């Protein structure tokens, strides 16, 4: 097996298992890391030039961006501990890796590949991380390239494909109305928690209605000084919305 593929399989297994890794798995992991380092050194020695005469090409040092991201949050041990990962990514690391694996499976665009020049492209960790940062912090695309090494157009494409892949991967379980079995399950759980007859906690969010017809603007304007549409959602105790 290609060392890089072994490294990816190691990372994939990590998100579905809480057990300690074996010596053989650790060796595969280290072999994959050495292969990544060799690619990084080779990319730095390779001369760079634009494909269009007269146009300067920016060397993004994509592998450096991947290695920095990996060492910061996914290495063993990482630079930043789990509680900082959860604060910055708004979820646990195992959940993040599970989403990355699902997105890679649904859309091959997220899988790391070599281009026509033989250079390794962006990793799934980089592409998914920029999508999460834009969603969590409302960050503009061109503000994320300095540390994650993606161009603005690639970040926007990552966001678009990430949303589509998440819908494909998780819509059957999460993006649907509750059925009779779900209703019974939620009622039983909340009854045991001291709230009989309760499905979950309701919350709402105001979404700015940019193209609201002028004649309706007054009816849709409340405490926010602009027309909005209210999105209401009910979430169970384990955040199944």
For this entry, give a set of tags.
241 residues; mainly alpha; 2 domains; 9 helices; 2 strands; 7% strand; globular
Can you describe this structure?
The protein is mainly alpha-helical and about 240 residues long. The chain has two domains: about 5-170, no CATH class; about 180-235, no CATH class. It is built from nine helices and two strands; from the N terminus they run H-H-H-H-H-H-H-H-H-E-E. The chain has helices spanning about 5-15, 25-45, 60-75, 80-90, 95-105, 125-135, 145-150, 150-170, 180-190; strands at about 200-210, 230-235. The chain has a two-stranded antiparallel ribbon. The longest helix is centred in the first third of the chain and has 23 residues, at about 25-45. The protein starts with a helix and ends in a 6-residue tail after the last strand.
Number of strand segments: 2
Helix content: 40-55%
Tertiary shape? globular
- Give the strand content: 5-15%
Instruction: Order the strands across the largest sheet as they lie in space.
Output: 1-2
Task: Describe the sheet with the most strands.
Answer: 2 strands, antiparallel
CA-to-CA gap between the ends? 40 Å
Question: How many separate helices?
Answer: 9
